[in-house]
Amino acid sequence: MTNKIRAIITDLDGTLLPKNGEISGINKKAFEYAQQKGYFRIIATGRNLYSSLNILPPDFPIDYLVFSSGAGILRWSDQKLLFSRHLELKETQDIARYLWNYNINFTIQKGIPDNHHFYYTDIYPLHPDYKHRLKTYAPFGTLIHAPEDILDKATQLIIILDAIQIRLLEKVKTDLAAYSVVRSTSPVDHQAIWLEIFPAGINKGTSCHHLLNELGISCGECAGLGNDYNDVDFLDLCGQAFLVNNAPIDLKPHYKSVASDRNNGFAEFIGKL
User: Fold this and answer.
1) pLDDT digits (tens, 9 = 90+) for 161-217
2) What pLDDT digit, counting tens, does each position of 92-138 carry?
3) 14 with 228: CB under 8 angstroms?
């Protein structure tokens, strides 16, 4: 017997928000319908808080925002920060030192709520996606020339791998296994591979689980919708789990399917519950 659904979790970019698009009126109405059904409505995104608030207006019909891939949780009604985690300064410098040895460019996002501010490196020819990120957030970036230039704790480090560096993906994940290393696809070009390094145990799944526990909701009473590798952590918690049709092919056999982000897959997802 399927559990009664009490909460829904959805990703943002590529799930609700199409590339160069906006969240449709149909999907917004589906959020309102979810409220009528008594569901707690949770968005779990890789975006930092600043970027999320630029996309989602204050009256957007959700209850909680899990941002920075689980490093923070915001209660939407009063914009209160309920939860945040960070890497200590020494941890951040140690990780930076490791990446420096492999000539990998990376950004170091500062602590929540100001994790749109960052340090960055240019020790290797810049990936186009990396260049775009630096340009987009130029007012908030500080170039560093050595790990010792890092002076703050960090929410996470972000690596954007090029076609040559992609072979290092599994090695980095193995060598930095003491931390949470999350793979995702770039929300900018939807092709580049990102690796994000968080404090141990931090990902969308663990933070969503923490929030559900606080709300007194079991995982079986939750339904999830995602589109990418970094959504797997929360999808695998949920009693019912779906992917939009634009998700990577290798993920599709493991989950139920709904229409793509551009074809109101979220509204279809809500209709199936």
Assistant:
1) 877 788 888 899 999 999 999 888 777 777 788 899 999 999 999 999 999 999 999
2) 999 999 999 888 899 999 999 999 999 999 988 788 889 988 999 99
3) yes
How many residues does this entry show for the chain?
273
* Residues 142, 122: Cα–Cα separation, whole Å: 11
Alpha carbons 245 and 15: distance in angstroms, whole number: 9
Sheet holding 106-110: strands in order across? 141-143, 118-120, 106-110, 154-161, 193-198, 180-185
Q: What is 89-198's CATH topology?
A: 3.30.1240
Cα–Cα dist 127/94, whole Å: 23
Residues 6+ away with beta carbon under 8 Å from 164 = none
CATH superfamily of domain region 7-84+202-271 = HAD superfamily/HAD-like (3.40.50.1000)
pLDDT tens per residue, range 54-74: 999 999 999 999 999 999 999
Whole-model pTM: value is: 0.93
